[in-house]
Amino acid sequence: MTPDDEVGRDFRIATTSDGDRAQLTVEGEIDIATAPILRAELQSVIDRGAQVVSIDTVGVPFIDSAGLGVLIGSVRRLRERGGRLELQHVQPAPRKVIEITRLDEVFELID
Fold it and tell me: What is the residue-level pLDDT of the chain in tens, covering all 111 positions?
């Protein structure tokens, strides 16, 4: 088993899109190891024309600075196109990081 196999086992993204909306459901930690996977998926849905990207994070117990960087980059790309990023069901630990860094002013948090 390679390190990538290990990441793949613990981290999953399911994506659906409908016109200018995309819904990602993420499970697992968003960290330095998994951030590139999330970045690639977000870039893909934005490149396909998504204006509103909703990420359901009910299965995300942890997010680090690499993960936050991916989300910030996606917010910028979406705003350039008149779009927005929504984070749904943010768990207590990631929410605390988002609030401490004042990124709750950048991301649209939906419970």
Answer: 344 444 556 899 999 999 899 999 999 999 999 999 999 999 999 999 999 999 999 999 999 999 999 999 999 999 999 999 999 999 999 999 999 999 999 999 998
Count: domains in the chain = 1
Tokens of 32: 């330095």
**DSSP alpha helix (H) spans, 1-111:** 3-10, 35-47, 65-80, 92-100
Euclidean distance between CA atoms 39 and 1, whole angstroms? 24
Q: What is the CATH number of the domain that holds 98?
A: 3.30.750.24
Q: How many CB atoms lie within 10 A of CB 40?
A: 11
Domain that holds residue 104: 3-110
Name which of 36, 32, 42, 39 is nearest 62 in CA terms.
Answer: 32
